[in-house]
């Protein structure tokens, strides 16, 4: 069983400064919007970074919807008893009128872009192999091989290529442009 905290309760806890906020999203998701004061420890690192969690104050885990935070809370169960999960995640925080800090102008996380790209390539390979030439199935096989390699080595060629795309580049903006384009209070 995971202990949850509502956005309103978190606002009170945050005002008292009595908890450590941990956003377990990917760095890209974190940069695209997070609760003020939350530090980023991606979910895949949470087990290895237990020493980064403060002793003596509760830890509030945050993700986009709360589901990944619940899974991370289960991982921490053996070492911490004071772990809470923001119910509904960053979305619930935003919907309750909570402030969101935005560091970058990305719309989609890199992981989501990889999933979309891989899915489209597999689909195109299969469709072209069915309607035009069976050799196109090699595109799907290549994508499958790439995903397998990425899973085994944690090196994703597609993610590397996507980071070079203009929509994933950090854009230098003046503070007035940032205020206009990235309203903090959402």
Describe the structure.
- With 186 residues, this protein is of the alpha/beta class.
- The protein has two domains: 3-95, Oxidized Rhodanese, domain 1, CATH 3.40.250; 110-168.
- It is 46% helix and 9% strand.
- The protein has helices at residues 7-16, 27-32, 67-76, 89-95, 110-131, 137-153, 157-163, 175-181; strands at 3-5, 20-23, 39-40, 59-62, 83-86.
- A five-stranded parallel β-sheet has the order 1-5-4-2-3.
- It is elongated.
- Residues 172-186 have low confidence and may be disordered.
Structural class: alpha/beta
Rg from alpha-carbon coordinates: 20 Å
The H-and-E topology, N to C, reads as EHEHEEHEHHHHH
What summary fits the major beta sheet?
Answer: 5 strands, parallel
Number of alpha- plus pi-helical segments: 8
Enumerate the strands of the largest sheet in spatial order, edge to edge or round the barrel. Answer: 1-5-4-2-3
Give the amount of beta strand, in percent.
Answer: 5-15%
Specify the CATH class of the largest domain.
Alpha Beta
CATH architecture of the largest domain: 3-Layer(aba) Sandwich
Name the poorly predicted regions. 172-186
Number of domains: 2
Mean pLDDT level: 82
Task: Specify the overall morphology.
Answer: elongated
The CATH topology of the largest domain is Oxidized Rhodanese, domain 1
Helix content: 40-55%
Q: What is the rounded distance between the termini?
A: 31 Å
Task: Give the total of beta strands.
Answer: 5
**CATH superfamily assignment of the largest domain?**
Rhodanese-like domain
């Amino acid at each position: 069983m995971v202990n949850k905290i509502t956005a309103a309760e978190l606002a009170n806890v945050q005002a008292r400064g009595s908890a450590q906020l941990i956003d377990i999203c990917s760095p890209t998701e974190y940069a695209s919007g997070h609760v003020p004061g939350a530090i980023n420890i991606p979910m895949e690192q949470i087990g290895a970074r237990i020493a980064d969690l403060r002793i003596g104050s509760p830890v509030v885990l945050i993700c986009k919807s709360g589901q990944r935070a619940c899974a991370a809370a289960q991982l921490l169960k053996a070492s911490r008893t004071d772990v809470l999960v923001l119910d509904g995640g960053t979305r619930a925080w935003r919907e309750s009128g909570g402030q969101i800090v935005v560091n970058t102008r990305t719309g989609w996380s890199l992981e989501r872009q990889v999933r979309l790209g891989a899915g489209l390539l597999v689909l195109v390979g299969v469709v072209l192999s069915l309607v035009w030439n069976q050799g196109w199935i090699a595109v799907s096989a290549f994508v499958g091989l790439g995903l397998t390699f990425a899973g085994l080595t944690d090196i994703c060629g597609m993610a590397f290529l996507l980071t070079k795309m203009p929509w994933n580049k950090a854009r230098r903006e003046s503070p007035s442009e940032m205020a206009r384009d990235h309203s903090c209070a959402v």
